[in-house]
Amino acid sequence: MGILTLADGRELAYEVWGDPAGRPVFFQHGTGDSRLARHPDDTLTASLGVRLITADRPGVGRSTPLPGRTLLDWVPDASAVVDALGIDTFAVAGWSGGGPHALAIAHELPARVTKVALASCLAPFDRPGARDLVLNKDLRMIWKLSHMKFLARAAARHESRKEEQHLSAFVDSIATNAPADAAVLSDPILHPMFEAEMGEALRQDGVGVLDDMWAFLDWGFHIEDVRQHVEIFHGDADEILGVGMAEELAGRLAGSRAHNWAGGGHYSVFAQWEEFLRSLG
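Above: the chain sequence. Below: its structure as tokens.
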């Protein structure tokens, strides 16, 4: 783990995985996840010639919170990470709630970001009915509490502390509620990684999770202005974000290419890790 001190004094935690001499890919973790989210077999990532960078967003894991942050506020932090690693140009990838953050980086850094890959990605809410594509009722409830953030924070603190005490059972409960993901979440190689990365995400009582959620309400840019090629992956059995999300993104991102994971759920990216990273080659 590396800890970077930012210009405003905040700290940001990051990791580097895979091939140290490989092509750099900055992977944006999901909402409710952390910098430890990746395929745990590092030899697989290295075999693909990828130098994988991950980082905790503010309020997640070991990174200092940034109250009221937006998607675009993440871009200078992300830039600081790749600058510290001596990286000029790089590909950016995002899974779930990391997808909007990946697109924000691509939008703001067109000369540095070469390509984008998205998996089970959230689409903007700037069109009628967009929120209806979010199938998970708990997520929809959090957005309904956007005008009562104190209540949402109290609930998040309570749930985070409960989940931290029973991480294995928490991962198992996700599989129970989303059967299409059961095989991935119960995989003996992946399950310990999910426990570790979700536990790290909850280190600050869910502060970063909620800040992600509020940031999704107004992206601050038009995704049509993202000009890099974008590879879009989505499982057609995703029970958290409906497949309509991928269709919405593909229709608005010029030059994008959509891929369907038949029978795949929200966490399928970890089972399809090789295909996902190869798309950025």
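The domain at 2-278 is CATH 3.40.50.1820 (Rossmann fold).
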